[in-house]
Amino acid sequence: MPAPLLNERDLDFMLYEFLDSESMCARERYRDHNRESFDAAIATAKQVAEKYFLPIRGKVDRNEPRFENGRVEMLPEIKQAVDAATEAGFVSSTADYEVGGMQLPLPVATVANAYLTAAGSTTLGYLSLTTANASLIEAHGTPEQIAKWAVPQRSGRFAGTMAMTEPGAGSGLADLITSAERAEDGSYRITGNKIYISGGDHELNENIVHLVLARVKGAPKGTKGISLFIVPKFLVNDDGSLGEQNDVALAGLFHKMGGRGQTSTSLNFGERGGAVGYLVGEENRGLSYMFHMMNEARIMVGTGAATIALTGFQYSLNYARERPQGRLPSCKDPLSPSVNIIEHADVRRMLLAQKAYAEGAFALCLFGAQLADDQHTAPTEEQRSQAKLLLDFLIPMIKTWPSEYGPQANSLAIQVLGGAGYINEHPVEMFYRDNRLNPIHEGTTGIQSLDLLARKVPMQGMAGYHYCLALMRETVAQAGAVAGLEKQAEQLESAIKRLTDTTETLLAAMADTNIDKVLANSVMYLKLFGHVVVAWLWLKQGLVAHQALAQSQHGDEQNFYRGKLQAMRYFFSVELPHTERWSALLMQGEDSAYAMRDDWF
Amino acid sequence: MKVLVAVKRVVDYNVKVRPKSDGTDVDLNNVKMAINPFCEIAVEEAVRLKEKGVATEIIAVSIGPKVAQEQIRTALALGADRGILVETEEDVQPLGIAKVLKAVVDKEQPQLVIMGKQAIDGDNNQTGQMLAALTGMAQGTFASEVAVDGDSVAVTREIDGGLQTVKLALPAVVTTDLRLNEPRYASLPNIMKAKKKPLDTLTPDELGIDVTPRVKTLKVEPPAERQAGIKVADVAELVEKLKNEAKVI
Ligand SMILES: Cc1cc2nc3c(=O)[nH]c(=O)nc-3n(C[C@H](O)[C@H](O)[C@H](O)COP(=O)(O)OP(=O)(O)OC[C@H]3O[C@@H](n4cnc5c(N)ncnc54)[C@H](O)[C@@H]3O)c2cc1C
């Protein structure tokens, strides 16, 4: 039997038991919805995924787009898949009814998208960028800009990109040099080179809308002088028809480890005197507009990483149930039939680790999606601002934890398949390659860890940090009162103590010693915090499962909840104790990397 | 022309069903339900007739509990115009369903009734034929192609020996086979629009129909488990076993 893309029962658990997504229907924005329409949207996603994405997944990986005569050649099936998903409404699932959206709550849309991701994360990439681009213009553009550039993206006529990175400015966007000069008609002329721009050129849509970060001539140095521009591939007339080609040239395509179906482009703006660009909002505020979308974009990266981990887990689980090999150590009879490899405890270890990483990561991302929705739609002002506070705080973890542990889960999926995992007849090696991007883009792990320790922890008098701790302690108190979960409650309580001790030590050290030296260990701090947060969310899942298990009669249901509890136990027994070592190293001020010198290598 | 499609709420085809422990019925507790796949094909065919300009209105009818509204709304999201739920908690059997449908046909006067050849829960394959008999309409069962032409419809049927095409005078009942079409899925905006389409609720009583079951289920049990196979050393042993143990040659 082929492996399921995702475990449907688990997605239901996440959405309706772990989160209570049905309760969102009480909010004004979602009052037309109920579980039925949520499930219907998810079912449609699954059908589009199985019909258009999955059949071409391997082919897309093996047939990279090519740069020929200045244009992009790619498999025609990609367009069919992109069109099908667009027509089904997935560019605008969360958008307002007025722009053709379905006004789905973000957690529900996240689960629907998970099917498309599992069946073809690369192909979905084209749509995700379009969605993000349209949302940004809707948030910060003028009504005319929205009508001209966002609406055609929602309907699938145009595609969108985010063009930030340059050869000399990746993690350090402050140093970008693409320039913009105001023209007489109020538009701007853009000149510069952008690299790694995903979806930067293709012919899947009539037009491509680039959102470009550039510096207006004479603007201040650093991040304070960056503006945001709409720069289309083709100019658009006032009646919406396409005009002449803009001065944006495809300089070439990059060839990648994974995500091979999506074009990664080098774009030259202004080879012929300046590409026409239209300012979004005000000059010099470009980065803040981008950051406005950053939380959503980072949740999306985390979710993508978690989802590829989930689908790799399902694939290797299915394989382990069908592959006979070897006998148990206790079996001395060479004539006995070999067992399916799932009978080997070490294979179960690799499956359980994947389950703990992937479902833990997905729970974290869905929780993030809930907060991202709550910050706009929760009933009271206080709830909205608390959701925003917690989301801002957690974002480095929501982006990074799945991105780091997702590929680890995929690596274990390869290991479960043995030699079969390493060859391209099975998709697990591709999952690994695809997933390996996630610790790099949308802020590398290193950059995220600096964001956490240097910005997010101290932010607003440590308000986000303290709020997060308070919520974790609430769960500790709840679980401590439940027979069967006391041990985990205790473990989490000690881990929180370790975390607060470590944080205080580091903040004190940052205040009175060399900040570079303290921040040298920021990734370890991010790991420590990430593991505590994921343990917390596992305990929350465990609480739900524990209660549901006591009430369920049905064998399959009981097995499902037992599986949840077992993965929680695994995380607490095998993973959470890592925090002891990390915390000790951080408190000691471990400095071998910091003290290492270039010449010594 | 008006087209009536019947849609049934059944266990999702992905679910592995099991008998209840007391053997009285199939265990449907907490089980995912869906529109019967053959009914989905019927809806799709009706929607295609509408897209071709042949059908003018599509009415989706379901007979079942209140929650069967969900399956009607699925049909509305796929393109049906309005829905009718004949609500009953009774486990209605093919004859009862056919009688209810006849009452709805009398009320609505459709030119074409399209329904699944069977529902995947009971696998009865009876309702369409019974409805045709009760209403006196022509019937084209197991359709793999449907072509309406003026006041008749040509239905290509999947039969044991191959394909058979029959020409029926309208009004007629058509039951769908798997190859008739590949159903579409509902786009997200259409899922929302379906919520605004009219959905009327009637009861068997209001229609004057007695839906009491006529067939009694005595017992539900799982089929015997397949025994493990054995390996034989050579052909001679195989022949010997087939002859003397299995006694099939
Ligand atoms: C497949 C792919 C798709 C992409 N899509 C897009 C896109 O659509 N649009 C877009 O604008 N960009 C895109 N990018 C670019 C991506 O965002 C950058 O690669 C990323 O921001 C890192 O920048 P860089 O590659 O210049 O690496 P660098 O910034 O050179 O980083 C190299 C290493 O140095 C570390 N480092 C850098 N600065 C610091 C610091 N201050 N402190 C500690 N460590 C540091 C990093 O963590 C990293 O390990 C894409 C990249 C890839 C590979």
Describe the secondary-structure layout.
The complex is a heterodimer of chains A (601) and B (249).
Chain A: H1 8-18, H2 35-53, H3 57-62, E1 66-68, E2 71-73, H4 76-87, H5 106-140, H6 143-154, E3 158-163, E4 179-182, E5 188-198, E6 207-216, E7 227-232, E8 234-236, E9 242-245, E10 248-253, E11 264-269, E12 275-279, H7 286-322, H8 345-377, H9 381-417, H10 419-422, H11 428-435, H12 445-456, H13 459-480, H14 486-512, H15 515-519, H16 522-551, H17 555-575, H18 578-588, H19 592-595
Parallel strand pairs in A: 3-6, 4-6
Antiparallel strand pairs in A: 1-2, 4-5, 5-11, 5-12, 6-7, 7-12, 8-9, 10-11
Chain B: E1 2-6, E2 9-11, E3 33-35, H1 37-51, E4 57-64, H2 69-78, E5 82-87, H3 94-108, E6 112-116, H4 127-135, E7 138-149, E8 152-159, E9 162-169, E10 172-176, H5 188-194, E11 199-202, H6 204-207, H7 235-244
Parallel strand pairs in B: 1-4, 1-6, 4-5, 5-11, 6-10, 7-10
Antiparallel strand pairs in B: 2-3, 7-8, 8-9
The structure holds flavin-adenine dinucleotide.
Question: Can you tell me about this structure?
Answer:
The complex is a heterodimer of chains A (601) and B (249). Chain A has helices at 8-18, 35-53, 57-62, 76-87, 106-140, 143-154, 286-322, 345-377, 381-417, 419-422, 428-435, 445-456, 459-480, 486-512, 515-519, 522-551, 555-575, 578-588, 592-595, and strands spanning 66-68, 71-73, 158-163, 179-182, 188-198, 207-216, 227-232, 234-236, 242-245, 248-253, 264-269, 275-279. Chain A is α+β, with helices and mostly antiparallel strands and 601 residues long. Chain A folds into three domains: 8-143, Orthogonal Bundle (Butyryl-Coa Dehydrogenase, subunit A, domain 1); 159-284, Butyryl-CoA Dehydrogenase, subunit A, domain 2 (Beta Barrel), CATH 2.40.110.20; 290-593, Butyryl-CoA Dehydrogenase, subunit A, domain 3 (Up-down Bundle), CATH 1.20.140.10. The longest helix of chain A has 37 residues, at 286-322. Chain A is globular. Chain B has one domain (2-244): 3-Layer(aba) Sandwich (Rossmann fold). Chain B is built from seven helices and eleven strands. Chain B has helices at 37-51, 69-78, 94-108, 127-135, 188-194, 204-207, 235-244; strands at 2-6, 9-11, 33-35, 57-64, 82-87, 112-116, 138-149, 152-159, 162-169, 172-176, 199-202. In chain B, the strands form two sheets. Chain B has a nine-stranded mixed beta sheet with strand order 9-8-7-10-6-1-4-5-11, with helices on both faces. A two-stranded antiparallel ribbon of chain B has the order 2-3. In chain B, strand 8 and strand 9 (162-169) form a beta hairpin. In chain B, helix 3 packs across helix 4 (127-135). Chain B is globular and about 70 Å long. The N and C termini of chain B lie far apart (60 Å). The chains are: A alpha+beta (601), B alpha/beta (249). Chain A binds chain B through residues 32, 36-37, 40-41, 43-44, 47-48, 51, 87-90, 92-93, 97, 100-104, 553-554, 557, and chain B through 27, 29-30, 70, 73-74, 77, 185-189, 191-192, 195. Bound molecules: flavin-adenine dinucleotide. The site of flavin-adenine dinucleotide (FAD) has 21 residues of chain A, from strand 3, strand 5 and helix 12.
